[in-house]
Amino acid sequence: MGEKRWLADEFEANRGHLRAVAFRMLGSRSEAEDAVQEAWLRLTRSDRNDVDNLSGWLTTVVARICLDMLRSRKTRREEPLDLPAHGAIVDIASNPEREAAFADSVGLALLVVLQTLSPAERVAFVLHDMFDLPFEEIATVIGRSAAAARQLASRARRRVQGQPETPDVDLARKRSIAEAFLTASRNGDIEGLIAVLAPDAVFRPDAAATRLGNVVPLRGAAAVAESFKGRATSARVALVDDEVGLVVFIEGQLRVVLMLSFEGDQISTVDAIADPDHLRDMAWSIFEG
């Protein structure tokens, strides 16, 4: 009984924070409450011995619940925000309640913009820019690499700030490196592959890519090069979530995205993403010419 009471007290201490996280992701107070309640149920069913940081664990669980809820909306019309009726706001400084209402209305303006983001973009932006969660932790929530999470948050940030979505100045250089990697892969050119891979290059497939391609995580240019030798015959160089990557088609359908991270003129990381939900969240376009 003592442990159960302690757990309930700790959850209540975190409830306000969890509700804020969920509301900024979902834009709905009722759905935010549902997400928080589901987090409590999962906590009661979990093995607490594996939880070192309860607040962080709860934040991650709520974020995952919200991500699932956001993805489910893609099969139906996005639900409207729960906009509170504030009434006329006058003499704000002398009225704490009206001051809070005004601040809330400003936050709702941001929520309207967040509604335009993909689920993964929204989660990455909210967790990092609003709640200062490290990209390494965000990556575990959205099932991407830390580099991909960083790119999602960056893209979302530009949209929120109303900045044009222009690629960075190194786009042409990265595209050239990706094309060299793809050409060497198709030709079975081990030396060509090693030349464009960083010495400690890493290949990281998600669970779906592991099953689809019978591949495993690899480290080192030689190992990654050997894995890609003679492959990627149906891949194309593309702009994926504002970064240069490769898109792989099987029987005319997009089945795998290879997210590339760069260090100078070499590829440092290849993240293979084949999870259908994650693929649907991505924005991509094949380079022409």
What does this structure look like?
The chain is of the alpha+beta class and 289 residues long. Helix content is 56%, strand content 16%. A hairpin with a 2-residue loop joins strand 4 (243-250) and strand 5 (253-263). Helix 3 runs antiparallel to helix 5 and helix 5 packs across helix 7 (146-160). The longest helix is centred in the first third of the chain and has 25 residues, at 2-26. The model is unreliable at 83-96 and 98-106 (pLDDT under 50).
Oligomeric state of the chains? single chain
User: Number of helix segments?
Assistant: 12
* Major sheet summary line: 7 strands, mixed
Instruction: Give the strand tally.
Output: 7
Structural class given helices, strands, pairing?
alpha+beta
Helical content class: 55-70%
The low-pLDDT segments are 83-96, 98-106
Radius of gyration: 22 Å
Strand order of the largest sheet: 2-1-6-5-4-3-7
Question: What is the H/E string?
Answer: HHHHHHHHHEHEHEEEEHE
Percent of residues in beta strands: 15-25%
- Distance from N terminus to C terminus (CA atoms, Å) equals 68 Å
Dominant shape: elongated
In round numbers, the mean pLDDT is 81
